[in-house]
Amino acid sequence: xxxxxxxxxxxxxxxxxxxxxxxxxxxxxxxxxxxxxxxxxxxxxxxxxxxxxxxxxxxxxxxxxxxxxxxxxxxxxxxxxxxxxxxxxxxxxxxxxxxxxxxxxxxxxxxxxxxxxxxxxxxxxxxxxxxxxxxxxxxxxxxxxxxxxxxxxxxxxxxxxxxxxxxxxxxxxxxxxxxxxxxxxxxxxxxxxxxxxxxxxxxxxxxxxxxxxxxxxxxxxxxxxxxxxxxxxxxxxxxxxxxxxxxxxxxxxxxxxxxxxxxxxxxxxxxxxxxxxxxxxxxxxxxxxxxxxxxxxxxxxxxxxxxxxxxxxxxxxxxxxxxxxxxxxxxxxxxxxxxxxxxxxxxxxxxxxxxxxxxxxxxxxxxxxxxxxxxxxxxxxxxxxxxxxxxxxxxxxxxxxxxxxxxxxxxxxxxxxxxxxxxxxxxxxxxxxxxxxxxxxxxxxxxxxxxxxxxxxxxxxxxxxxxxxxxxxxxxxx
Length: 478
Fold this sequence. Notes:
Layout: H1 12-20, H2 26-44, E1 47-50, H3 52-67, E2 79-83, E3 92-93, E4 103-104, H4 110-117, E5 121-126, H5 162-169, E6 175-180, H6 186-191, E7 195-198, E8 218-223, H7 226-236, E9 266-269, H8 280-295, E10 299-302, H9 309-332, H10 340-347, H11 354-374, E11 380-384, H12 408-412, E12 416-424, E13 430-437, H13 442-456, H14 466-469
Parallel strand pairs: 2-5, 2-6, 9-10, 9-11
Antiparallel strand pairs: 1-5, 3-4, 6-8, 7-8, 7-12, 11-13, 12-13
């Protein structure tokens, strides 16, 4: 299968601009994407709940407001999908689990409120790995979403924000919310050919989110382009009195800081010791990324990491299990139906005593300080998002942490990172690279990623066969 270089799916920022200019209505956009959901999602399995009537009603109201000269905000009329870990008042929330009947939320997550206040239309809730504990994107109890880059072989979408990434990649939403505890925004974004942002802890409120590991959990956007996730970040970021962990950060108006000269940027590249066990196509694409960055005038610096990625994975994995068991252990010890692999990861935390947990937190802080000191001479780190491209679901070995290799250390050290498309394998499967920055350096990281995106334009390539395999309607002009 070869990728299709024809942009039939509008990016979030393009859709927003078209609606603002009166070239597209929200009703037309919502109608088109609901038609795609109807045609595609029986196979792709991205959504767990679609708010059809509500979305159409909201779109009609937004169109009427625009005709009257009123716009709610920068997302006026565009569509978003929400990972099924966020509360939306009156809607079921299941967290990817069938262990207990989905409860109806009594409140709405702050980030969803902010999206709606900016004019976004929520299309529905998306699939997730059970309680967001897994990077492959598989869900043994609710079914695994289908990566839209191969309609013949059921390939992994990546996780845990599996449904959110599939929905955006297939044009069933303009953007989506995910969560990232050890790569869960970046991994699926990378495998599905999208942009995914892991935010600094505290930048985005987690009020109304079912958490797994509070020391690592973050909320982040998924979309087609860097400017899309920057626009979403502008809307959802900011302090929240309902989340004690949220802070008043120095990050301001990220979308207004994307342009600018990046020549002279100091880029920390992967040391030779960490280039092992990477799929050849991914390594070749990564080296191509480095060539592009050099052409853009950036200075490449190879240096050793203060702590190996494998050691970071070990510490982060233990913290996830310990905190996951503290939050969910009472549930998982019951004789209920669970994904057996998620259950194993959660119950592993039962064997981590308090003294060991405190020791892990000390190791985390030591590693964080060492990494921040090591990053002083550079502006950003660049490395693969995933060591492999999307394998078939049948090939998955759930005991392996292959997809967490380049993801977990970012959460462990509370850095920020954005995954962006970086090419394709010979099978036409997306390859991704991530730009990793210091805490609160989202504007810088996104500006560098935007420069790379503009130089390569991989975002213009869409999955092949979606239009041919599924009968859909195109959005009509206003």
